[in-house]
Amino acid sequence: MTFILESGYAFWNPLIWIIVFLVVMIVVYFFRRRGQKKYKKDTDQAQIFLCGEEVPEAGERHIRVGNIYWGFFETLKEYYNQILRPHTGIVNDYVLWFVAATAVSAIILLIAGLAK
Amino acid sequence: MEYIPLNFPFLAAALLAGISFYIIIFRKNLIKLIMGVGMMSSGVNLFLVALGYRAGGNVPIYTDVPEGPMVLSVPQALTLTSIVINVAVLALMLSMVINVYRHTGSLDSEKSRKMKG
Amino acid sequence: MATLITHSPILIIAIPLVTAFLTPLIGMANRKVRDALVIVSLAFVVVLVFALARDVVINGIRVYTLGATSPDLTIPTGFMVPVRIILEVDGMSIFMGIIWSIVSLAAAIFSLSHIASETGQNRFYTLLLLMVAGGFGMMFTGDLFNLFVFLEIASISGAALIAFRIKFADTQEGGFKYIVISAIASLMVLFAIGLLYAQYNLLNIGAIAQVIQYTTLDKIALALLLIAFTMKAGMVPLHLWFPDAYSVAPASITGMLVITSHACMYAAFRVCFTLYGSMLDAPVAGWILIVFGLLSMFIGVTMAVFQKDVMRFMSYHAISQLGYMWVGVGVGLAVLGNAEFIAAYGRDAMSGGIFHILNHAMYKPLLFFTGGALFHCTGTRDLTKMGGLAHKMKWTTILYIIGTLSISGIPPLNGFSSKILIYESVYQFHPILTITGIITSILTLASFTKAFHSAFMGAELPEYKEVKEVPRSMVIAMVILAAGIVFITLFPSLVVDWTIHPAADALIDQEAYITAVMGAIP
Amino acid sequence: MRKIAGLISWLVLVAFLVSGMLLLHPFGYPTPSDMDDYIIENAQEETGSNSVVASVVFDYRGFDTLGEATILFTAVTGVLLLLRTRKRKEESS
Amino acid sequence: MLSKIVRTVANQLILFILTFGLYIIAHGHLTPGGGFQGGAVVVSGVVMLLVAFNSQELKKSLRERLLTIMESTGALIFAILGFVGIGTTFFYNILVGSPVFGRIPPSGAGPGDFWTAGYIPPMNFAVGLKVIAGLTAVVLALALFASGEEVEE
């Protein structure tokens, strides 16, 4: 039994990856062992420090989904405006897309048949 | 029966399906939409049963049948199946519309929608 | 044992069906017995499917003629064409069957505690079993009209299950949209079947494939069939109903609905490769599939990044992942007539697309189940309200991470092994396909990281102090699928050799499918 | 915009359906009818039913009818599921 | 509830409708008709009762539990009749040639014989039972819903 998956040009072997992953993990472990040993849980050491300011409540300081990737959406604003337009949520439109797609593909198939 | 030019029964079936597409696309009332689906199923059933007709044919049932050819029997069986299926679909659709109306108080496909995007 | 294998194609469909008829009767008497019956029958089906799969891979296509004096007697003695309904199980059908059996078992186990507090459980399990039977029927049948009937069974039971939680408004809306779409799609399928029947007076797929001429009527029928199945599978731009319906269903059902989408996709492949096959204008039809696939990949993932509802977000990802399969198999279809290109990259592209079906069927239901677990614990699907759940739900978090890494194609997980097959073979057909695929993969990882952060990471939120880990049966269901992922990760070549390549070859080899029904062509 | 696009694609689809109907065999003269002729000739002997349609429905294509009965069952279950009471009764098992 | 005349007439008429429906179900293998059609005829009688009396009153005599049991039983009988033939194949018409419904009519046009057609008449009965119970349940559920009640679980 072989682990190698041939993909035409190249091959893929998960075992190699797993071994590499384990080696990297060992290296990481060694780095970690060289770190501070004085750190202790459940003391003031584990508290969040925010330049001496008051730390907000747990609910406040969690970054919610609406704020993640703000720049990405800001850059692609035009694209999203366009792409959201067909997503109307009206069931009639859904059927209209079906009709249009059927008509277009029938035309394509017929024209391709004529060209032959 | 004489030869019918232009396949009128088939045309009727296709037009029935076409008209029901118009209803489904352009009518916003959900009950009308269901009626459109019902009409489309009638069109398809008509098409199927018309496929099996043979000019001057008898019913394909041997009980006291006169002499002569018989019309094709498979399309009739298919139509029978298809009719029952469509009854089932329509019943389920109607009960869903009842629930949609109960929740949103509207039968308009634009006003009763909650989800988009 | 040999008798069991001979009859297994029908038993796989009939056992869930009969159990579904029994469920209301038994459920009235005792709940525990009903649950046990559902699980045991589905587990038995899994065993049967694997036995049949082994037989199909070794001995080739298995046919089963319903009502004949012998299962192999496809054509009545002294006649030329088949008359009865024939079930035909080849590599591709049994491949879909394996997926469907595993996922339905996992979904049934997941449902045990997921819907435990709802009313109407008897009917829920009845419909679930009917959906299983409908899906198997679609995959195994060799008859066009029978395909239509089982398509309807699967979609009607699916619609009723989507609307299962009647106290929410959006479930009713989603179920209604789903049933309207599936009613129209299946009526158009029926219309196309009528067109084919009118010309050839046949309903069996293999028998029609032998005599098909590719006339203008056949082209119209092809357009209707292809687009109807495409819409049922949920491809851009026909995907609009997909997130509406899939995000509101109970999570176990959503996992199964994804596989019904795959089944519709399988039906489209069956139509293209087997029904039309050599007569088809292959490059044109192939490009139609590829364009659908590209659009779905890109638009699906960009819409997904945008979503705030966890199930809706995963539904858009399902659309985008389905795109990979269309691209892979579409490339295979586009070069179908050319044996040289098929050998060079067509078969690999198809293997990649089909392999992706298997992988997707493992990780996407897993992700939907984790979404359902979040809903179960927090009572909301809104990601903006979630946070810090990893503190409470350790199992769900770990399983979500496995699913995320797998769907984004992070090596060494299984998502990567199918994606590399697709990328490398499709590149030789047209580089733009691979580029779109890689961009999609990156965006997938980005959006899943976003969802992971907002749901699981962060400090413990005060409103979720009382949250506990999900009940055991839900964890077991998720672990079954995760175990599938790990298995495929470790042994990709084993899986590919035993299931994927037979499936791809079954699609390419139209002759074998015809011969199994019609006998050797004189 | 939506109206125009809808009308055009609708017209194209209807044109396809109608032209397809014109290309079909003339109404009443199905050209190939091997399968049906076989059934009409042999149904009485094989199934013993005088009604050929019944023999097709329950014998030759009996599996379709099982599916059809299943669909009716599904729809009834679905309707009763959707119109059920929203309150939960006392546990009774 | 409609007037007394309507109720009396409906009370008498229901017998005829039921008889006609059962006739259609029973002769499905000899004349046009069968389980689905006959079942639909019977249910049309039920709808007539529903119009003449109100739905609450009908609900007393038609328990929903009973309808569910009837429907499941009908479907089960149908599926099991298919299973009986699995010695040869699923849906093999095993009753042809047996003493029950096993006669084979002379080929060609004839008057017809009730004891023919193998498993087709029993299947018609099973389907009829199923359709009657199923459609009655649907009609009753919709009518009850319209009058403000809901179906029990």
Q: With helices defined by DSSP (H or I, 4 residues minimum), what is the helix count of chain B?
A: 3
CATH class group of chain B:
Mainly Alpha
Poorly predicted runs of chain B are none
**Oligomeric form of this entry?**
heteropentamer
Q: What is the CA-CA span between the terminal residues of chain B?
A: 56 Å
| Molecular shape of chain C | globular
Rg measurement of chain C, Å? 22 Å
Shape of chain B: elongated
The averaged pLDDT of chain C comes out at 90
Largest interface by Cβ-Cβ < 8 Å: A-C, 52 and 69 residues
How much helicity do the residues of chain B have? 55-70%
Sheet bearing the most strands of chain C, described? Answer: 2 strands, antiparallel
Strand content of chain C: under 5%
Taking Cα atoms only, what radius of gyration of chain B do you get, to the nearest Å?
Answer: 19 Å
State the share of residues found in helices of chain C, binned by percent. Answer: over 70%
Number of helices of chain C: 19
Major sheet details of chain B: none
CATH topology (level 3) name of chain B: Helix Hairpins
What does this 3D model show about the protein?
The complex is a heteropentamer of chains A (116), B (117), C (522), D (93) and E (153). In chain A, 54% of the residues lie in helices and 5% in strands. In chain A, strand 1 and strand 2 form a beta hairpin. Chain A is flat. Chain A is built from five helices and two strands; from the N terminus they run ββααααα. Chain A is mainly alpha-helical. Chain A has a domain of 53 residues. By secondary structure, chain C is mainly α. Chain C has a domain of 210 residues. Chain D has 93 residues and is mostly helical. Chain D has one domain. Chain E has one domain. Chain E has five helices and no strands. The two termini of chain E are 26 Å apart. At the A-C interface, strand 1, helix 1, helix 2, helix 4 and helix 5 of A face helix 6, helix 8, helix 11, helix 13 and helix 15 of C.
